[in-house]
Each structure stands twice: as C-alpha cells, then as structure tokens.
Design goal:
- The protein has 12 helices and 11 strands.
- The strands form 2 sheets. A 6-stranded parallel β-sheet has the order 8-7-6-9-10-11, with helices on both faces.
- Strand 10, helix 11 and strand 11 form a beta-alpha-beta unit.
- The protein is elongated, with a radius of gyration of 21 Å.
C-alpha cells in the first residue's frame, strides 16, 4: 500500500499513549505517503501530531461511538462511512468479546488488526515492544522502540540549570510523600543554584502551591494543567526532570530530557521510561522508605 489511509484507535492514559508513539512512527516510516489518523482523546493524542507522525486526530468520545460497543448495535451512518474510508485499522481498545471489531467489520472492508490495550504484567516485555507487535502482521519489523517528540532544542537561559519537578502521579501510592518533596526543595534552595519548574495537573494545584512557597519567587516557576504539547516544549527548554511512575515522566523522556524517576510499584521491565537518559531510583517496599539524602545524591549525579 503506497498511499491509502490508516486509522489507529488508542484510548488510555498519557503514558499508555506515549508508549504507543513508536508504533505510529513505524507506520509513518513504512507508509510515508499514507494518510495516518488517530482516534483517541484529543488532549493526549495531540502528541502524535507533535511527533510529526499523523495527519489528523479525531475524538473517540463522540456520542455516536456508543453503538460500536454494543453487540449488533445501531451504527451511526456518518461514523460507519468514516471507518469505511480506511484501508487499515489498528485498534488498541479493550475489546475482549470482539464486539467493537464485529461492528467495524459490518461497515468497513479495512484490514483490521487488534492490539493489546495494556501489556500482560506476567510477561517481561517492555510496553513499547508490546504495542509494536500488531505491526508485524503488516511486515513491519526491527523498529525503533523509543518514543520521540519532534521538539527543537530550546535556548538556555543564563544562570543556574532548570530542574523540572513533578511531585504527583495518577495514584497516590506511586508518590513520594509531600513532606519529603518539601525537604528536597528546601535542600535544593540552600545547596544548589538550580531553578525549579514545578509541574502538575489541575488536581495537584494545592500541592504545588504549598511546595512553591518554600523557595524564593526568583528560583521557582510553575506549569499547572498545561496542554501536553505546550508542557512538552516547556520541559524541553529545561535541563533535567524528576518525578514518579507517571505519564508526565514518560513525556519528559520523550522530550529528550535527562531524568530521575522515583519508582515504587510498577514493573520497571514493562513500564520504565524508554530512554537511555533516564535513571530509576527504585524502592519496591514503598517510596515512603526512600530518604531525601538518597534522592539528592542521585540528582546531583544526574545534573553533573
């Protein structure tokens, strides 16, 4: 297929999508003249346009999609026509009973390839490799498994280096305690000249406000609930990143930063950031056991 059109359907959280970026890049490399679209959550899937791999992003949250998740559902004619316009459809949706697949086949003659919505936690294979597997049915092998975003290197500001700090995640059990973050920032304020960029989502605003109050205004700035492409560019303008097992950590890695991930529960073989510039500081017994001195030592090694 030299031209044609390909649709990739990908829900999931920020990290899930970023770890699927190598699959989109591989499709673009294999079919450079094809029209490649993503059906997903636009605020996340917009990263695929930033990566330069897709032509268009469409929302999976449209009400008309509901019929496609019901057995023998009433299919929206406009959406049916949309799916019929593709030569290849690759779906990473959770579809254990193949209801979605059956409904797509009812309205489209596209080759349909189902991929896993998440890796099997019992199989020691990195998520990027798992998400690349469906492409083998299209004779796509030996692809680069590293997620990349197409970001130009930003000019550095004069003065100390900038460290991006994301003290949250999608789960409190993955987080280093706030009081430890406070200790770390106070130590950084007295023992370094690094500028701090605090990063967080809307739900983390109060935590960021408390932590920001610990340092002089000239040393700290915040990126709160920014659109992901804008946040990626802002991270790229810094020097390094520290965070947890989170989608923002994967975003920082894909943006090309050096980084340190405080790692508590997830299997690192499957979920670690796919970047040679990232280090893990693991504590499988729980991040509350991780001391401030340990983190500061690892940060100094990273920044030097």
């Amino acid at each position: 297929m030299s031209g044609g059109s390909i649709l990739v359907i990908r829900g999931g959280a920020i990290g899930d999508f970023i770890l699927t970026l190598p699959a989109l890049a591989a499709l673009r490399k294999r079919f450079p003249r094809a029209r490649l679209e993503v059906l997903g959550y636009p605020h996340i899937a917009s990263l695929a346009k930033l990566a330069g791999t897709v032509n268009e992003v469409r929302s999976i949250e449209a009400r008309a999609m509901a019929g496609f998740f019901a057995r023998r559902g009433a299919l929206d004619p406009a959406l049916g026509e949309y799916f019929a316009g593709f030569n290849i459809i690759i779906s990473y949706l959770f579809d254990p009973d193949e209801i979605f697949r059956e409904n797509i086949v009812r309205c489209s003659k596209a080759q349909f390839h189902a991929g896993p919505h998440r890796p099997d936690e019992m199989e020691p294979v990195h998520a990027t490799d798992v998400f690349l597997r469906p492409l083998e049915r299209l004779a796509i092998f030996g692809t680069d498994p590293v997620p990349w975003l197409n970001l130009e290197a930003a000019a550095r500001s004069p003065g100390g280096a900038t460290l991006a700090v994301h003290p949250g995640s999608g789960s409190e059990k993955k987080n280093w305690p706030e009081e430890r973050w406070a200790e770390l920032l106070l130590r950084l304020g007295t023992e370094s000249d690094w500028r701090i960029l605090l990063v967080g989502g809307e739900a983390e605003g109060e935590r960021l406000q408390r932590l920001a109050a610990l340092l002089p205004v000239a040393r700290i700035s915040a990126a709160l609930h920014q659109p992901l492409p804008e946040l990626a560019a802002r991270l790229r303008a810094g020097d390094a990143f520290i965070g947890h097992d989170s989608g923002i950590t994967h975003l920082a890695a894909a943006a090309g930063l050096r980084g340190l991930a405080l790692w508590g529960g997830s299997n690192p073989v499957i979920w670690r950031p796919r970047s040679e510039r990232f280090e893990l500081l693991p504590e499988p017994r729980g991040l509350a056991r991780l001391g401030t001195d340990q983190v500061l030592t690892a940060l100094r090694r990273l920044m030097n």
